[in-house]
Amino acid sequence: MDADTQPLFLVLELDEPAASRITELRTACRDAFRASLPAEITVTGSSGVGVLVPGQAIEEIAGVMQEVAQGFAPVQACFGPVMRFPDTNIFAFTMTDEAPFRALHHQFVTSTLKFERSAFPFKPHCTISSIPVTEEEATRRLRYRWSEAFSLSTLALYGLRGGQVTRLATVSLPC
Question: What is the model's pTM?
Answer without folding.
Answer: 0.93
